[in-house]
Amino acid sequence: xxxxxxxxxxxxxxxxxxxxxxxxxxxxxxxxxxxxxxxxxxxxxxxxxxxxxxxxxxxxxxxxxxxxxxxxxxxxxxxxxxxxxxxxxxxxxxxxxxxxxxxxxxxxxxxxxxxxxxxxxxxxxxxxxxxxxxxxxxxxxxxxxxxxxxxxxxxxxxxxxxxxxxxxxxxxxxxxxxxxxxxxxxxxxxxxxxxxxxxxxxxxxxxxxxxxxxxxxxxxxxxxxxxxxxxxxxxxxxxxxxxxxxxxxxxxxxxxxxxxxxxxxxxxxxxxxxxxxxxxxxxxxxxxxxxxxxxxxxxxxxxxxxxxxxxxxxxxxxxxxxxxxxxxxxxxxxxxxxxxxxxxxxxxxxxxxxxxxxxxxxxxxxxxxxxxxxxxx
Length: 377
Prior knowledge:
single chain, two-stranded antiparallel sheet, 2 domains, three-stranded antiparallel beta sheet, MetI-like fold, 13 helices, alpha+beta, 5 strands
């Protein structure tokens, strides 16, 4: 090294951490679709699962005189061409069509309702504990005739925007809680099956094949029929989550069994056994953590199927029932041609279901690539 070289060259280079999880995060954040999927999923849980009462302009069962009213579009420019910083919606005038014998709503530009943010509205309890009455947006609280129906109303005059947010809470939580129970059952039983083999393996695999032999819908119908109709809504919710977990754990158990069959012959497992480690320690400290990256990916990709299963069951009337509200329960109102023909805005939950499923799939694909950082790019 010559004296002309900069002094910085003499300084030791900073060591960069190359741990497994650093490599996983480095590769995951390079996948833009996975990042977008994670942002969408977290946003849905933040808005619907945690702060639904705050983001919804009305409470779940708030009713108005506008039955099956069309959505109100947000405007910034009035008919005279004047621009307004505060967004507003036009009022609706109810008309009766004598030919179709149906209510129709005409936009009334003479009535303009401004949209206010962080307004005082109907009281609620945040997280069921904190009394509040602040909503993210809503009509002028000083005008009792003002209203805002961004996604229209249902047949009872309830705001669809608010009901979609509240419905997302149950749909998203059923997918998440159901998959947590599925992970527990599938991981534990699959690991036990692969580790012990023999009669235990035979019994677990026959049970998974027995469950897989039944078509999903008839099996769901049979299991849902055992729920007593007099049960409270919260018990029905937990029972449906348990049913989804019982039916779905077999696929994960088979995959975990296959991984455990290969991991139990690794050197670190044989070393633990040679030092006298118990079977419980080998299973829960070595084998299951060794398969955890694969389990996380499978769980992420399986949550959308849980959400779709709940939506389909509730739409068929076999899942959640009113007064519980989920996206499937909301879609039950458009199970006839008349609703689709005259109130197509009742199909608004469909884009939310599709967006959630696509976001979870993008997140799962990104995790699958990131959790194998040493694989090919």
